[in-house]
Amino acid sequence: MNKDNPATTDADIPGHQQDNAIAEAGWIGRWIDAGGLLFAVGIVLAMLILMQEVILRYVFNAPTIWAHETTVFLCGIAFIYGGLYCTARDRHIRVVLIYDAIGPRLRRMLDIVISFICAASSAMFAWAAWLMVERAAFSPDGSVRLERSGSAWDPVYPGLLKIFLMAVMAIMAVQFVILAINYARGRR
Amino acid sequence: MEIFGSLQGLGIDGATLLMFAMLLALLVTGIPLAFVTLLVALIFALGWFGPMAVPLITSRVYSFVSSFVFVSVPMFVLMAAILDRSGIARDLFDAMRLIGGRLRGGVAIQTIIVAVVLAAMSGIIGGEIVLLGLIALPQMLRLGYDRNLAIGVVCAGGSLGTMVPPSIVLIIYGLTANVSIGALFTAAFIPGFMLAGFYVAYVLFRAYTNPNAAPAMAAEDDVPWSEKLTLLKGLILPILVVIVVLGSIYAGIASVTEASAVGVAGVMLSTMVRGEFTLSILKGAALQTLQTVGMIVWIGIGASALVGVFNLMGGIRFVSDLITGISDNPTIVLLFMMAILFVLGMFLDWVGIALLTMPIFVPIVTDLGFDPIWFGVLFCMNMQVSFLSPPFGPAAFYLKSVAPPEIGLGDIFKALLPFIGLQIIALGVLIMFPGITGR
Amino acid sequence: QDYTFRFQSSDPAGNPNFEMQKGWAQSVNEMTDGKVQIELMPVESIVAHNETQDAIAAGILDGHVTDVSYFAGKDPAFGLIANPVGAWSDPQQMLDFMQEGGGKELMNKLEEPYGLHFIGATTPGLEAFVSKVPLEGVDDLQGLKMRAPEGLVQQVFAAAGAAPVNLPGSEVFTSLDKGVIDAADYTVFSTNQAQGLHDVAPHPVYPGFHSMPLVEVSMNKETWDSLPDDIKQTLEKSVAEFAQNQISSLKEDDEAAVAKAKESGEITVHDWSEEERAKFRTIARGEWEKVAERSENAGKVYDTLTAYLQEKGLMDK
Ligand code: NA
Ligand code: NA
Predict the structure, then answer these.
(1) Poorest-confidence range of C46-55, C82-91, C215-224?
(2) Assigned domain for A31 exists
(3) Considering every ligand atom, which ligand is closest to the CA of B352?
(4) Chain A residue numbers touching B248 (CB-CB < 8 A)
(5) How far apart are CA B218 and CA B146, in angstroms?
(6) Which domain does A39 fall in, by range?
(7) Where is the Tripartite ATP-independent periplasmic transporters DctQ component domain (chain A) (predicted)?
């Protein structure tokens, strides 16, 4: 459908055949791409933790108090980072009805505009996430205290996840700006 | 600062229309889908309230990614990614072709059966479509199946995860409506199989009216018995994995979410048994999982954010008034609710639809004297339609993320139309014959 | 001047608690001659259940009707005051503590720095315990695989020898059904019954012994401060009346559900002896002390609570 379209050819290749961020993503895209491994390992770790929990509970009647919260945390950061990862690789799903119908020059313009709009909204979300972090990372008297889960184990996962979300939104804004610049330069 | 709050001048009805128009317009421009809904949410947060409302969006994003419900999605995708890199899937389909024998459309029917088994193993969609898309779709294409039929079977079959119990849609419905989740599961059992049966019937119909759509495997008779036995070995490991996963759920060893991790471990062990396991396979599979869940989850994130903003704008009261004002005839009100679900299904993810409509619909349904359990099954069936219906069809998106490059989103949606028709027929049957749910 | 407020509940739309809370919102309207209109939204409609505090402070919501324990991650003090496991054997005791025993002042001391004002307290009452196996006392909790989500409840059961499993509410039913867990901390008897939990776990303990959540009605502090005194008083009064209505009405529901359950013959309702309840309370108290050490505010909650309980003769000095 959009096979001859240079901007989305990468997006059309099934995951295991494409191993890089797209060229337009620039240096930050390569960094984001490399960082993916950490969070991919997190998913495998989450699987191992769940298995361990099943065994500890069923065989030894000794469930942990940390397995489920840790699994949710590992998956949560993977979900958030996964969005950034897809941005660098241009792997988010795009409906290309109009996009495909127009010529390459207009298409490039569209890519630039889209990247700028996404950069602006990501920046806005990073700012909103900061407001959230203000309450999750500091107590009302201004001292640093990460929001906890409130469970018996009481990890600081909620605080960490909120900070992480803010960081990813900020990096995503930068990524979109760089994408826009590189689309404008016509860099391949 | 004049912009902030200016949208309020439209009123909630005008704003709702504008919201749908904007979704549609932005969708076709090629903006990444995840950002279309996020962007519309942002525009309305700013345009209706002002900057103070924007943290609502990030709060919902945070809550969405940190909910336990979605843990099984990366597990299913990881399972698919490992299977895809091993020879297990190919061997499985070779063996299935042998068993399918001379039945036309046999492999498609077996894919539907595999889908039902997977549906009994999980409660959510996403992972299964990716799994079938990576494994069953290439095999059916290789065997000469009509492309549209193969795509439809994968998407519609893969969506059964929330129709066949256990189902997260029914669980969320039960918690919202304060009805028994067990009763919901029981009631959804036959409708789930009925829908799968419709798919099978459709495959048979296509296969026997058009031999090119689903080629028969006449030549297989010539395969000597010794080779048949070798081929049948391909069934052993997958069946063992299924037994372990289903067994762990039904014997009370693992919760439904944990069972998805058991499945991954089972598949990993299987690749080890076959001598195929390497760290680089695991690395590739894990990276692909990261990418696929990033795509799947961000689509849901945007929808959830949009619903939050719409509710804050007074969406709940608006929709509620809309429904109660339509008619005094309960059946018409019911059909109208189905129509709303259908339209919402074109624009939103099921989580968003559930969050938006359940609080409104459930009290109305009970007031009208309908059985809330039966309605829960109707809701669930509606969500099946929403997975496939364009322009926002999650099943199509999930498949697109792993389908061969020459299959475009437009091709997928075209292939799904007959299956949407089957789902609507199933919905109609449920409305006309509530007895199917055992109520 | 007229006021329109948007409140979010921590209960879903079909839940009887939500219906009662809507009744409260209606009563506020009537008591203020239509001057105050409260639109009550079900859980998750604007933000998630544990995000309402932030949303109210940010001005996105005006107020909430919610279980206080959802904010235990912000300060352990919220967890302790929300559910001092074993402290109350009757809802009226807790309401009296909030009204006369310094509870209200304490709540405002905790919440005002977060930008909220505490209007009043209510509770769905003593939760019943859900179990697949017969439980007659503390000894039966040994090694019991049970679901417990919130901090203190989980901690107390662990101290009592049970093996608490951390599961979300959405997995309780299927996990009980298949036997992943044998028991669960869920909610009041009538709701447990309606959601079919007793069909898969036919040995409920009623009246409950372990948990009675504090449900707060709070709103944005700045908005509260800007209200005229008569409206403030009416709001407080309305919440007090609402609490009484909710308690008596849910108690009725519970009793009807218990009668029905007993009648069915398939469900055995267990009632713990006073001795066993006291044993459990003693274990719980040991855990309060641990929470009290975790923050300055939690220490304050502990002091105020034990002082009240001792004064009323509900606890040994
Ligand atoms: Na299922
Ligand atoms: Na759809």
Answers:
(1) C82-91
(2) yes
(3) 2
(4) 54
(5) 18
(6) 20-185
(7) 47-179
Write out the H or E segment, with its range, that includes residue C37: strand C36-41
DSSP per residue, C51-118:
GHHHHHHTTSSSEEEEEGGGGTTT-HHHHHHH--TTS-SSHHHHHHHHHHSSHHHHHHHHHGGGTEEE
How many residues in chain C?
317
pLDDT band at B36 (very low <50, low <70, confident <90, very high): very high
A77 within a domain of the structure (yes/no): yes
Distance of residue B13 Cα from the nearest chain C Cα, in angstroms: 19
Q: Is B214 helix (H, G, I), strand (E, B) or coil?
A: coil
Given this model, what pLDDT does residue C316 score? 73
Taking CB atoms and an 8 Å cutoff, what residues of chain B touch C45? 308, 311, 316, 355, 359
The C-alpha atoms of residue C258 and residue C274 are separated, in whole angstroms, by 20
* 3-state helix vs strand vs coil in chain B, percent to 5: 80, 0, 20
Distance spanning both ends of chain A, measured CA to CA: 21
Quote the Cα angle for A24-A25-A26, to 5°.
90
**Chosen from B76, B290, B299, B349 to mutate, greatest number of chain A CBs within 10 A:** B290
Share of chain C above pLDDT 90, in %: 66
> C-alpha angle B38/B69/B181, rounded to 5°?
120
CA B368, chain centre distance (Å): 30
Torsion (CA) B313, B317, B319, B321 in degrees, nearest 10 = -140
B10 contact partners, CB below 8 Å, separation of at least 6: B18
pLDDT recorded at residue A18: 54
Distance B199 CA to ligand 1 centre (A): 17
How far is the first Cα of chain B from the last one, in angstroms, to the nearest whole number? 56
Into how many domains does chain A fold? 1
Give distance in angstroms: CA of B413 to centre of ligand 2: 10
* Total Cβ atoms within 10 A of residue A59: 9
pTM confidence score: 0.91
Per the listing, tokens 């990444």 go with B32
- Which DSSP category does A3 fall into? T
Give the integer Cα–Cα distance in Å for C310 and C313: 5
The minimal CB distance from C154 to the residues A132, A141, A152 is found for: A152
In a domain, residue A13? The reply is: no
What is the value of ipTM here, to two decimals? 0.92
Q: Residue C257 corresponds to which tokens in the numbers above? A: 């559900």
Chains contacting chain A through 3 or more C-beta pairs under 8 A = B, C
Most confident segment among A164-178, B95-109, B270-284, C241-255: A164-178
pLDDT tens digit sequence for B207-254:
989 878 887 665 555 677 777 787 777 788 888 888 888 888 888 898
Ligand nearest to the CA of B256: 1
In the block, residue with structure tokens 């898309």: B133
* C-beta atoms of A125 and B38 within 8 A: yes
For chain B, the residue count is 439
Task: State how far the Cα of B133 lies from the Cα of B351, in Å rounded to an integer.
Answer: 23
C185's enclosing H/E stretch is strand C183-185
**Other C-beta atoms lying within 10 Å of the C-beta of residue B304:** 27
* Separation between Cα atoms, residue B371 and residue B348, nearest integer Å: 26
Say if the Cβ atoms of B176 and C42 lie within 8 Å. yes
Residue A161 covered by a domain: yes
Phi, psi of C66 (to 5 degrees): -150, 155
**DSSP SS3 for C265:** coil
Give me the residue from A65, A67, A140 closest to C114, CB to CB.
Answer: A140
Which strands form C183-185's sheet, in the order they lie side by side? Answer: C129-131, C183-185, C145-147, C163-165
Q: Please check whether residue C176 is in contact with residue C197, taking contact to mean a CB–CB distance below 8 angstroms.
A: yes
Tokens of B204: 């048979």
Q: First-to-last CA distance in chain C?
A: 51
Give the distance (Å) from ligand 2 centre to CA of residue B410. Answer: 14
In this prediction, residues B310-320 reach a mean pLDDT of 91
Contact assessment for residue B338 and residue B389, using Cβ atoms and an 8 Å cutoff: no
